[in-house]
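Each field is set out as follows.
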Amino acid sequence: MAKKVVATLKKEGGVTYAKVIRAVKSDKTGAYSFKEEMVPTPMVQETLKK
């Protein structure tokens, strides 16, 4: 299924996307979880600064 998602996002002349995966620490338990986002390539640095 992941191949279909990637294939549909790669279109000629369209916006290229990057998958950003961040580790987020829980305040309650101290455990880490991962948050995944699909963002346009020019906005990757802005997304990581959050």
